[in-house]
Amino acid sequence: MSAAQPPVQFAPDAWFKSSASAAQNECVEVNASAHAAVGVRDSKVTGGPVLAFTAAAFSAAVDAVASGTL
Description:
Distance between the termini: 32 Å
Number of strands: 3
Strand content: 15-25%
Radius of gyration: 13 Å
Number of helices: 1
Shape: globular
Structural class: alpha+beta
Order of helices and strands: EEEH
Strand order of the largest sheet: 1-2-3
């Protein structure tokens, strides 16, 4: 069993959401302030849990959504 990784620390003032989602309350916020990691959280629960992805994994997911394959 591998050792647990320490939690990724994201700058609290670096969260942003798409301006296209401003009229809706169902969106996520993204934070790329940590080295080689991208954080994603529910915009309605700012103190809630954060999912951390590698930059490559996040980029691949965004590309898949944009192309319609995800």
